[in-house]
TrEMBL record:
Span of domain AAA: 3-175
Matches recorded under InterPro entries: AAA_dom, DNA_Partitioning_ATPase, P-loop_NTPase
Pfam families referenced in this protein's UniProt entry, alphabetically: AAA_31
Protein's name in the database: AAA domain-containing protein
Annotated organism of origin: Candidatus Colwellbacteria bacterium CG10_big_fil_rev_8_21_14_0_10_42_22
Length: 265
């Protein structure tokens, strides 16, 4: 049965999509069967892996207007598939709001296919909207990319409180697998301080690997290629490979229990 991991941070531009796309690629390269669900109306993960995709997408899936098989697309990497998104998904926010069990649409959708995979990754939008709640409710684990910059840790307390509310009110067990330091430039003092601060104060694990700021990671999506294909020897590629190894390693260890205390920075 798959581990379902939502990649989540309501702050924009912190590396959620870059992480989802490239973590998925390396998990597949390391022998896992992986499905990436693009659950952001911006559809950045879709364009990062598929060029010019048009057609039914996750929006149709969660509303029961498409079969899974119609939506699942292969990528250039063996055993790595994607369910695309599109701007249609922004309409779902309005359509779902009046429906019963509106938090569970993505979960129900995933439950029918998760047995086919080792990992299901969900790329979430920069908000704490109903889409994000659907993503969290669908997931077993949350991975939080944190940008190593001055405002990077702002909002993390609110994010953890949201996870806590979901856990308590929707009776949904969910774990914070870890925070991931992204867009890291170790030559600069400020990012080093932010990373140190996060490692010291974040009440959950922080992945050992830090994702460096790397032009190759920024360029790869414009070729609709994961970094594993675009430039596998670049520092960003090596970092995402290490992240995949850390995540796989957690399969072997029992994850620490999630303790939702207050977190203020
Ligand atoms: N490690 C990195 N090095 C260089 N550029 C990066 C890196 N990670 C992400 N980027 C670039 O930064 C921008 C934001 O990254 P990304 O789209 O992954 O963030 P996001 O959190 O998904 O954004 P959003 O909140 O809009 O969904 C993109 O242009 C991406 O190519
Ligand atoms: Mg994104």
């Amino acid at each position: 049965m798959a581990r379902v991991i939502a990649v989540c941070n309501q702050k924009g531009g912190v590396g959620k999509t870059t992480t989802s796309v490239n973590l998925g690629a390396y998990l597949a390269a390391l022998g896992k069967k992986v499905l990436l669900i693009d659950f952001d109306p911006q559809a950045n993960a879709t364009s990062a892996l598929l060029s010019n995709y048009e057609g039914k997408n996750v929006y149709h899936g969660i509303l029961g207007n498409a079969y899974h098989e119609e939506l699942i697309r292969p990528t250039q990497i063996l055993n790595y598939q994607i369910i695309p998104s599109s701007n249609d998904l922004s309409g779902a926010l309005i359509e779902l709001v009046g429906l019963p069990e509106r938090e569970y649409f993505l979960r129900k959708f995933i439950n029918n296919i998760r047995h086919n995979y080792d990992y299901v990754l969900i790329d979430l939008p920069p908000s704490l909207s109903l889409l994000t709640v659907n993503g969290m409710v669908a997931a077993d684990e949350i991975l939080i990319p944190v940008q190593a910059e001055y405002y990077g840790m702002e909002g993390l307390g609110q994010l953890l409180r949201t996870v806590n509310l979901i856990k308590e009110n929707l009776k949904h067990p969910i774990r914070i697998t870890g925070a991931l330091i992204t867009l890291y430039d170790k030559r600069e003092r400020l990012p080093r301080q932010v990373a140190k601060n996060l490692r010291r104060n974040f009440p959950y694990p922080v992945f050992d690997v830090e994702i460096p700021r790397s032009i190759h990671l920024a360029e790869a999506p414009s070729f609709s290629q994961p970094i594993l294909i675009y430039n596998p020897s670049s520092p960003g590629a090596l970092a995402y490979k290490r992240l995949a190894e850390e995540i796989i390693q957690l399969e072997l260890e029992s994850l620490p229990p999630t303790n939702f205390g207050n977190f203020n920075v």
